[in-house]
Protein 1
Amino acid sequence: MAAPVLFRHPSSLEHDTGSHPESARRIVAIERALSERDWLGWNVRLSPAATREQIGAVHPPEHIDRIESLCGRGGGMIDMDTLVSPGSYEAALHAAGGAVAVVDALLGAGEGASARCAASLHRPPGHHAERGQAMGFCLFANAAIAAQHAIDAYGVRRVLIFDWDVHHGNGTNAIFHERDDVLFCSIHQSPLYPGTGPASDVGRGAGEGFTVNLPVPGGSGDDVFLSHVEHVVRPLARAYAPDLVLLSAGYDAHADDPLAGCRVTDEGFAAMAASMRACADELGVPLGLVLEGGYELAALSRSFVATLEVVGADAAPPAPVVAVDPLALRAQERLAAYWPAPA
Ligand SMILES: [Zn+2]
């Protein structure tokens, strides 16, 4: 197996959002923290731009054109939270391209491929972007584009996307809502922006049971998050048996984050990462990670580094031990309608 690979690109710094919390400072802080640790020994590569075909497998051409032309005209607001500058289109192409490159590094056969894990360190984030709508700081649905690429380019039959960003990944949720080849599972604070992702939203049609929403109240910390990962997400992953696990890794559930009210610590993120690494190892499938949110720079960079340290370690760390939280138990009971009970 090749060494873990991290994809980055300087275009992430050219998506100029001014004093917005989703700023280039996030990438600068993470990259500084990683370089101080010699990038943890990861293979660091420049992300390609995603092709129009790769993005177009998820978004209609009008959506791509709208973003390109708004950036070409000097930028502007898309909604109250989401703005673009002249450099945003290029940044968004590479953010999607980094996510696609993660899949190529994991599933491809070329030089440096067959990595056991890979990560995309980019902005803008992606999980709020719906097929035809940029929103919530997101332009293209990076993780969804990566999952679709795995299916289209490698014939992957099942992809698990687990989203631990504190906000519900409404974009990924909507894109795969009626499909069973992508199992989308999200833990998120509720109520909170964007207001979607109730436990009752389980997907529709062929996708019924393949959307798993795990809302948790504000104030939830390591125990609640980790309990859901260990006692809901992992059993679900075992039952689904995906060929690939992708993490939509946001760090705004951190106790220090200004945009939400959860209380996850650096150690909590490391423990969730350990749980997902153990999950992928147990299934014998690769693990990819795509950066989503996280707005307190110190907490974001510490927690991101802690995540990479765990997922990229030579030996899998011991799986965390955590009691079954009452909310996780309720989630297990709900899921029993679609999935076998955990052993
Ligand atoms: Zn978020």
Note: The beta strands are 5-8, 43-46, 76-77, 83-84, 117-120, 159-163, 182-189, 211-216, 244-249, 287-291.
Protein 2
Amino acid sequence: MSLPQFKLMRPRTLDEAVSRLAKHAGGGARGTRVVAGGTDLIPSMQQKLFEPEYVLDVRNIAELKGIRETENGVEIGALTTLTTIEQSVLLRRRYPVLTEAAATVASPLLRNMGTIGGNICLDTRCLWYNQSLTWRKGCGFCIKKDGDLCHVAPGGTKCWAAFSGDTPPALLCLKAEIEIASASGLRRVPLHEFYTGLGDKYRRLLPDEIVTRVFLPASSADYRGVYRKLRVRGSIDYPLAGVAVVMKRSNGHVDDARIGITAVNPSPVLVKGAGELLVGRVIDEMLAEAVGDLAAKTAKPLTTSALTPEYRREMIRVFTKRAVLAAAQVPAQRLIEFG
Ligand SMILES: Cc1cc2nc3c(=O)[nH]c(=O)nc-3n(C[C@H](O)[C@H](O)[C@H](O)COP(=O)(O)OP(=O)(O)OC[C@H]3O[C@@H](n4cnc5c(N)ncnc54)[C@H](O)[C@@H]3O)c2cc1C
Ligand code: SF4
């Protein structure tokens, strides 16, 4: 599959990038797309899901790369690769749920190219959408691209394509914020406000804006973190269900806990009520199971992805239970008993 024709812009500074975006965001009928690692955008362009008039390649902007400890926590440039995140000693020590989630993305080669900014901005996925133009023409276009109906929920007007990034549920658990830049300045938003809950217009990002940094607050550091993921091919695959858990305990009791899920809704989401259920309690199998039930209720998988919605919801329940037990460091042989 060939790439559609586009004009390439390669700014070397953020100022240059945002002024180019301001000029070309309208970009005629086809607009402009930012490309970072290109591991998701390029295949999507080959499938003619995006046919931008301009592509803004931001890879040469050095100021958006790297991990920095500040007095308020840790700052990660949007162009930092997933491999850098996975291998960061600082992140592994202070925010282990993020390194664990990053390590599960795709394959080593794709993690060498793929960035944290691209993972946060990742397009939502659906079996009726991530297909070639010929396939989509044959089977019928849908709301997300070129059509007006949904094959997954016929009769409805909403797109349910699933958000399938691995690091965002971990980032939500860490109460991450992101910085967004445009020619009119910088704005900072909590990550949970970035996603809309819609499969088509899934993120709150204007055409002239670019994600520049991720902030991890000091208050979320040093939590024990676990990420569990369901996928078809263990060596390289998007999540079909994913669960991130962070937990702080003292004297065996939970002081604070958060749980985020991915790949089963149009946005990554925090499981409401999970913290309240866990705080002050000693983790045991029954409690972990109750949290698993809550996570399964939060998951709304549909037939957007491989494996049935019923199985993916069940795996959210099972993985949440396992992740909660692992975060509480329940001995491994007991985990085997629980399945
Ligand atoms: C075979 C295969 C398997 C994969 N498996 C996984 C997986 O298991 N888990 C997973 O999470 N992902 C997976 N991916 C998707 C992808 O590799 C990762 O999500 C990666 O992190 C995307 O980052 P990128 O820099 O390559 O993004 P790009 O492809 O460059 O961009 C992705 C999207 O984000 C936008 N974008 C990128 N950076 C910015 C920015 N700074 N500001 C504004 N918009 C931006 C782009 O315009 C585009 O819409 C897989 C991809 C492939 C091809
Ligand atoms: S959920 Fe419906 S509208 Fe969205 S991509 Fe899938 S088929 Fe299209």
Note: The chain has 14 helices and twelve strands.
